[in-house]
């Protein structure tokens, strides 16, 4: 089972869904699609959710919105791509823990609490460290209670450790790479990787150029980062979240009103022109990963785990609640 832990379509109701078809054709069985970040108002997120859900429902032969591992397996058996949604940041929760279950009912299957910058719930990885707030602890409980995957991508180091200590369920990094290999603020330390593994979770490797340390990222670059996680904590705790951003020319999905990209992606943290210098591994990376993972020392079963079975295991545990 091949599990893409994070992908981005334009946050617009007219977003082209053909990239998801490309993922399916490349062998992906499940993809988590972003529906909003801390900079996006709830009105925009709800518009995107409504449009995405309608698009999926209109093409059941190609896409299935899923809520369980059994539904993923059924979609795969029918040749359809299983889809879930994710939120990147806690601001869309409006300070209300009960919002978690509402988003779950709309298809959100994983969430992290801060997108690069601090908010009343958690710390971003490019901001001042404070740790998980009291409201954040209530939010962790709400995520666990709702049966949603608790994610720590984009989250500050200390805060992520607090989240992993507070969670009663496995915690994931849906798209994050080892800091020991590439010293970027979005990458995660050995301490964070070990803490994630201690929860039973998975660190999913991003295919973003800056976090892999190359301008032209390849399957071998992704495999080397996965191998580092595997060597540190075991192959059962490594996964894939390429974080490909599928832009659509002519479609403006920027948040309405005042919006400063340089705040969310600061130049001081290594972003040139916000995301202007970012490149991604191609979709076809999915076809090359099994061989690449074995070239870096994994056996076939370990490689299959990294490709998706590890995330399938964690989802099978977390999504059973309630």
Number of domains as seen in the coordinates? 1
Name the helicity range.
25-40%
Beta content comes to 5-15%
Name the average pLDDT: 96
Outline, from the CA principal axes?
Answer: globular
Based on CA atoms alone, the radius of gyration comes out at 18 Å
For this structure, the CATH topology is TIM Barrel
H/E element sequence: EHEHEHEHEHEHEHEHHEEHHH
Do you know the CATH architecture?
A: Alpha-Beta Barrel
Largest sheet: 8 strands, parallel
CATH homologous superfamily annotation: Metal-dependent hydrolases
* CATH class category: Alpha Beta
User: Helix/strand-derived class?
Assistant: alpha/beta
Unreliable segments of 5+ consecutive residues? none
Query: How many angstroms separate the termini?
Result: 24 Å
Number of strands: 10
Q: What is the count of helical runs?
A: 12
Protein name: Membrane dipeptidase
Pfam families: Peptidase_M19
Keywords: Dipeptidase, Hydrolase, Protease
GO molecular function, one term: metallodipeptidase activity
């Amino acid at each position: 089972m091949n599990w893409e832990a994070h992908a981005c379509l334009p946050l617009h109701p007219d977003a082209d869904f053909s990239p998801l078809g490309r993922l399916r054709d490349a062998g992906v069985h499940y993809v988590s699609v972003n529906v909003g970040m801390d900079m996006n108002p709830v009105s925009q997120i709800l518009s995107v959710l409504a449009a995405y859900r309608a698009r999926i429902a209109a093409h059941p032969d190609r896409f299935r919105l899923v809520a369980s591992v059994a539904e993923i397996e059924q979609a795969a058996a029918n040749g359809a791509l299983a889809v879930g949604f994710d939120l990147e940041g806690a601001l869309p929760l409006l300070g209300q823990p009960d919002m978690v279950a509402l988003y779950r009912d709309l298809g959100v299957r994983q969430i992290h609490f801060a997108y690069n910058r601090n908010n009343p719930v958690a710390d971003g990885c490019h901001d001042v460290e404070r740790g998980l707030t009291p409201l954040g602890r209530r939010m962790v409980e709400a995520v666990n209670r709702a049966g949603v995957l608790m994610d720590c991508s984009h989250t500050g180091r200390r805060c992520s450790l607090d989240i992993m200590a507070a969670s009663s369920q496995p915690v994931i990094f849906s798209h994050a790479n080892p800091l020991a290999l590439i010293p970027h603020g979005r990458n995660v330390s050995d301490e964070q990787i070990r803490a994630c593994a201690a929860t039973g979770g998975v660190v999913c490797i991003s295919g973003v150029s800056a976090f892999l340390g190359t301008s032209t990222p390849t399957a071998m670059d992704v495999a080397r980062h996965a191998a580092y996680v595997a060597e540190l904590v075991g192959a059962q705790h490594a996964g894939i979240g390429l974080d490909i951003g599928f832009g659509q020319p002519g479609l403006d999905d920027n948040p309405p009103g005042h919006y400063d990209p340089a705040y969310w992606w600061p130049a001081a943290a290594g972003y040139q022109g916000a995301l202007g210098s970012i490149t991604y591994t191609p979709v076809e990376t999915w076809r090359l990963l099994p061989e690449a993972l074995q070239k870096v020392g994994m056996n076939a079963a370990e490689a299959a785990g990294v490709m998706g079975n590890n995330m399938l295991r964690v989802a099978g545990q977390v999504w059973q609640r309630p």
